[in-house]
UniProtKB/TrEMBL annotation:
One GO molecular-function entry: DNA binding
Organism encoding this protein: Streptomyces mutabilis
Origin: domain of life: Bacteria
Protein name: RNA polymerase sigma24 factor
Keyword Nucleotide-binding annotated: no
SUPFAM superfamilies found in the cross-reference section: Sigma2 domain of RNA polymerase sigma factors, Sigma3 and sigma4 domains of RNA polymerase sigma factors
Domain RNA polymerase sigma factor 70 region 4 type: 133-184
Family annotation (InterPro entries): RNA_pol_sigma-70-like, RNA_pol_sigma-70_dom, RNA_pol_sigma70_r2, RNA_pol_sigma70_r4_t2, RNA_pol_sigma_r2, RNA_pol_sigma_r3/r4-like, WH-like_DNA-bd_sf
Keyword tags: Sigma factor, Transcription, Transcription regulation
One BP annotation, GO: DNA-templated transcription initiation
Domain RNA polymerase sigma-70 region: 36-101
Annotated family: Belongs to the sigma-70 factor family. ECF subfamily.
Chain segments annotated as transmembrane: none
Length: 205
C-alpha cells in the first residue's frame, strides 16, 4: 500500500520530526521534547495494542533507551519513527516475557485514527473505526495481522519500515496488514472496498 496508505498527519509531521531529532542529537532539549510530542501518541497506541494497560510504563522504559542512544540514530523523521517503534517493541516483548503473557491488541486512540480517506480498504476502515470498536475488533485479529495493522495505522510506518520492526519480509507484512484491514472492513460492513492486495507475493489468501 506504500505511501498512498500512510496516515496523512504522520507524513506532515515527518519533516518537522527529522529536524527536531537532528537538533536533539546536538543537545537541544526543547527539540527532544518536540520529537517526543510527535512520536509518543502513535508509539503509545502501538504499545497499547501489545501490552494493554501497561503501555505507559513500557513507553517510559522505551524513551529512556531512546534518549540514551539518540546520538547513534541515523536517518530522517520516518526512520526515527521506525527506530523508536523497534525499541518500543523490544521493551514490550521483554515485558510480556516477564509477565508470561501474550500480546493482546486493545484500544487505539481515536485522535490517531481520525484519518479521512477516499475508497481504499485502509481508509474506509479508519473512517469507520471508533475507539470502542477497535478494542473489540482488533483484539479478534491474528497476532501478526493485529501488529501489522497497529504499525501501519497507529505508528504510520510503510511496509518496509514495519517489516524491519517485526523482523519479517516486507511482502509478509504487507499481506498481514491487508488481510487484517480486509477482515476489519468485512466486520464493519464497509461497502465499495477496493481489492488492492499484493499480487506477486506467492502467498495464498
Amino acid at each position: 500500500m506504500g505511501q498512498r496508505g500512510e496516515p496523512r498527519r504522520v507524513q506532515t509531521y515527518d519533516g518537522e520530526l527529522g529536524a527536531a531529532v537532528a537538533r536533539a542529537q546536538d543537545g537541544d532539549e526543547a527539540a527532544f521534547a518536540v520529537a517526543y510530542r510527535l512520536v509518543q501518541p502513535g508509539l503509545l497506541g502501538y504499545l497499547r495494542g501489545l501490552v494493554g494497560d501497561d503501555a505507559e510504563d513500557v513507553a517510559s522504559d522505551a524513551w529512556l533507551e531512546i534518549a540514551r542512544d539518540l546520538r547513534r540514530f541515523r536517518g530522517d523523521g520516518a526512520g526515527f519513527r521506525g527506530w523508536t517503534a523497534t525499541i518500543a517493541r523490544h521493551r514490550a516483548l521483554d515485558h510480556l516475557r516477564r509477565q508470561k503473557a501474550r500480546p493482546r491488541p486493545t484500544a487505539l486512540e481515536q485522535d490517531v485514527l481520525d484519518l479521512p480517506g477516499p475508497h481504499s480498504t485502509h481508509d474506509q476502515v479508519l473512517e469507520t473505526l471508533s475507539t470502542e470498536a477497535a478494542l473489540t475488533l482488533i483484539s479478534g485479529l491474528p497476532r501478526d495481522q493485529a501488529e501489522a495493522v497497529l504499525l501501519k495505522v497507529v505508528v504510520g510506518l510503510d511496509g518496509p519500515a514495519a517489516a524491519r520492526v517485526l523482523g519479517k519480509r516486507p511482502g509478509a507484512v504487507r499481506t498481514a496488514t491487508y488481510r487484517g484491514l480486509k477482515r476489519l472492513a468485512r466486520q464493519l460492513g464497509a461497502d465499495g472496498v477496493t481489492d488492492d492486495a499484493p499480487r506477486t507475493l506467492g502467498e495464498s489468501t
